[in-house]
Amino acid sequence: MTMLALSFARVCSGLAPFRTVLRLQPLCSASGITVAQIDEEVAKLLELKARLGGGDDGKHQFVLKTPKGTRDYNPKQMAIRERVFNTITRCFKRHGAETIDTPVFELKETLTGKYGEDSKLIYDLKDQGGELLSLRYDLTVPFARYLAMNKITNIKRYHIAKVYRRDNPAMTRGRYREFYQCDFDIAGQYDAMIPDAECLKIVHEILSELELGDFRIKVNDRRILDGMFAVCGVPDDKFRTICSTVDKLDKLPWQEVRKEMVDEKGLSEEAADQIGEYVSLHGGMDLAERLLQDPRMSQSKQACAGLSDIKLLFSYLQLFQVTDKVVFDLSLARGLDYYTGVIYEAVLTQAGVAPVALASNDAQNGSEESVSVGSVAGGGRYDGLVGMFDPKNRKVPCVGVSIGIERIFSIMEQRAEAAAEKVRTTEVQVLVASAQKNLLEERLRLVTELWNAGIKAEVMYKKNPKLLSQLQLCEEMGIPLVAILGEQELKDGVVKLRVVVSREEVDVPRSDLITEIKRRTSDA
Amino acid sequence: MTMLALSFARVCSGLAPFRTVLRLQPLCSASGITVAQIDEEVAKLLELKARLGGGDDGKHQFVLKTPKGTRDYNPKQMAIRERVFNTITRCFKRHGAETIDTPVFELKETLTGKYGEDSKLIYDLKDQGGELLSLRYDLTVPFARYLAMNKITNIKRYHIAKVYRRDNPAMTRGRYREFYQCDFDIAGQYDAMIPDAECLKIVHEILSELELGDFRIKVNDRRILDGMFAVCGVPDDKFRTICSTVDKLDKLPWQEVRKEMVDEKGLSEEAADQIGEYVSLHGGMDLAERLLQDPRMSQSKQACAGLSDIKLLFSYLQLFQVTDKVVFDLSLARGLDYYTGVIYEAVLTQAGVAPVALASNDAQNGSEESVSVGSVAGGGRYDGLVGMFDPKNRKVPCVGVSIGIERIFSIMEQRAEAAAEKVRTTEVQVLVASAQKNLLEERLRLVTELWNAGIKAEVMYKKNPKLLSQLQLCEEMGIPLVAILGEQELKDGVVKLRVVVSREEVDVPRSDLITEIKRRTSDA
């Protein structure tokens, strides 16, 4: 702590004129300060320093970091990322999706009025003259804008790209300010619940293939929620705000949610208790059938429509062989304003992996970090969003799902780390090497032959590298083969092909080398 | 024109309080106004409208567009983009590169002082509290920041990502404000010119594989340029600015460049003429040898070092079999400040494709659009950039190349258009269809079997689609096979497999279907 205190003092004195900006007094003197708090204050100070454009000694000094809430991906992380993307893309393509791309920023007004309270998390660009722009917050709103702009009324598309939210980052748990979303959406007027069921089939396939452990896909419907609110006596104008409170049920126990409803949102205790009964229910098609008979619930036309659709959905899910993981859960209430029908969310249920903790275990803790559970995919039906962009409000029904990939990366990275798994970051099949001096030209000639034949090959960028260092490079990078050239080999018209793992060496006629390398690496 | 005038009048009246912002008077009354000018003014007005957040009638009305200088990619364009990326990525991987990713924005100060005059084109983010951020301008500076931050002294990496420049867009020619760069860089202390030569080999491979027509790769060296300036009598403090003027030689004829040197930059006529002699030279290794003997040039140690390296470079390029396209060209002077050695730029030399016009043809025109020639790749050596991020200024020598992909996309898209080429946007192998009613469940059951076996398959999202509309969907999307189910087929335990192109139909036992589909689509 002394070291920390010292460095604080130095930073504080260097920033004397700006003391008013920061509450440094309690920081420098108080006891009982946590490391997390110190880290946070250091980050703030470094930010301030960055804005001042220099260090305390007057000499310009870079703050060598990425922006808050963002990260670089190193080659190992990229190799894992590529694997995950390939699995996801393969699944999207298997289901016949096309792909589109949209700009990373949109006109500010395109995003306005789509995200409710979360709008405060949107990154705006500086007004440098011209249009007012914001970074995209998700891929759904740009998709809707794209459909309306191009008057597209049906498409099945996927879109894998980064989105931006000025949220509180929790990076060890895979919560970033810049993060990838992998979206799959089906737009078009189709027979009920078939596309909706396919979205769930896709989530099931992807989470199974990624082998992230057991998972559940919770399903509900906005119309059931609204109908439930109506029959429980929630006033119409409180539907949205009560819905937001229900949405906290995956983070907070019922008693706290109930408290918020009654104390903060002014709901009657009676209404809250009735809601409480419903949101504790979960099941399958049978639950939907039971609720259709429920004397209170059946009074709501909306709820009945939703419940009938849930029944239909489950019948398709049976055909798709995914009912083992899907739960009809009345407590699911996704936050976004634009959903109009079915909603769903997938959670990992194995607490074995560090960043994924079950809500119930952490619920009493209540801090924002500990309650971020294993939600790794979510989505639903949004039949009104495209119409918001159409001058004549022409609607295009849509349903889609978004895979939250960063949390999956975190899990995969930690696993690779834990298993001390050797992740290859290149695909090089062969290193062209030499044991003797003055053979650079011969090495370059041979590697050119290999490149021209489509073989992934490297040479060391040295005139006279040692054989040992060339072999070490192979070990390090996981290169399976070495093609060794020497005076004798050149004379005999052969290349010595060495298998790195077994140290086996064999002379291959130069004319057969390409075929031989391809043969030996074809299963790699 | 009447229509236009009318709509102008309406917009003008709607914006009366803001008239001072725009110079509307000349616009509304003047004659001889061009369509381009009108378009520009309309864009300005729409921008203003967007900022006011509403239309003239008070009702909120969206401006349904992407931000200036940006575009969406539709599925066809994405299919082309994917093909180009695959070719490029395959080449980078063949040469043993790893890949990394960095955030789309950096701390503003990370970009400060790296781009000279072009810094004004950087997009800043709005100060919403916290750090000051800017969108990345290229991938090179973030790469250097990454190396310094992680203390990496050698790596061969590629990075394919979007970069941002508030430049004047010329979108039909592939010049955007948001555009992709495909960068390949080699960092590390190696024997001279080997990595540099590999970068040129890579450009050669990529441009050849993409079949964009003939191309040239111009090569020069910053040290040769500086040496040349010194021996021609350019004062030291004018090197950079004279270099910028020389850089315009691909857009302007020598006489205009000379004029700028003398009239604007205050260079003596004698010095300008001496430069003029040198910059008209181009050749191969022979030219480098000749210049090493040149009585004036040989006085500069710097120039001699550069010329010797060019010789060495060409000797490696011969081994790499790429000298057919590489020209040592003394007029090449790339704008960026950070280059320290070899520089290069690839240009397409076939004027056959619309957006690529040769500079010489357009030079007298002088408008910014017409002079943007076919430069599709560029790069060079930058040994000092990483050191700028290191507190102790430890240098990491780097050389790299950036493929300017948007122009390549433009060419490919126009070609696909011109050839009326059928670009498939999905990879679906088979549509599960039915000729009869009430078979939705059977179709869903079969498509599930196919998906679970990894077959790319679709069904129409209708309970009872017509067979004709199912076959039309196949035609439209290029789906090669249809698996048709009917009562009879279900009874017989077969599926009728139809080849869309030939209309051939064959009954396949259900148990053999997956194998049969895989067999028939394995070469697809």
From TrEMBL, chains A, B:
Sorted UniProt keywords: Aminoacyl-tRNA synthetase, ATP-binding, Ligase, Nucleotide-binding, Protein biosynthesis
Enzyme class: ligase
Residues given in the record as L-histidine binding sites: 138-140, 165, 181, 185, 334, 338-339
Pfam families given in the database record: HGTP_anticodon, tRNA-synt_His
InterPro entries, sorted: aa-tRNA-synth_II (IPR006195), aa-tRNA-synth_II/BPL/LPL (IPR045864), Anticodon-bd (IPR004154), Anticodon-bd_dom_sf (IPR036621), His-tRNA-ligase (IPR015807), HisRS-like_core (IPR041715), HisRS/HisZ (IPR004516), HisRS_anticodon (IPR033656)
Statement: the UniProt record of this protein carries the keyword ATP-binding: yes
Cited CDD domains: HisRS-like_core, HisRS_anticodon
Cellular component aspect of the GO annotation: cytosol; mitochondrion
Top-level taxon in the UniProt lineage: Eukaryota
Enzyme Commission numbers on file: 6.1.1.21
Residues making up the signal peptide according to the UniProt record: none
Catalytic activity reported: tRNA(His) + L-histidine + ATP = L-histidyl-tRNA(His) + AMP + diphosphate + H(+)
One GO biological process term: mitochondrial translation
GO molecular function term, any single one: histidine-tRNA ligase activity
PROSITE patterns: AA_TRNA_LIGASE_II (PS50862)
Domain Aminoacyl-transfer RNA synthetases class-II family profile: residue ranges: 39-412
Family designation: Belongs to the class-II aminoacyl-tRNA synthetase family.
Alphabetized PANTHER family for the sequence: HISTIDINE--TRNA LIGASE, HISTIDYL-TRNA SYNTHETASE
Record-given protein name: histidine--tRNA ligase
Origin species: Poecilia formosa (Amazon molly)
Upper taxonomic lineage: Eukaryota, Metazoa, Chordata, Craniata, Vertebrata
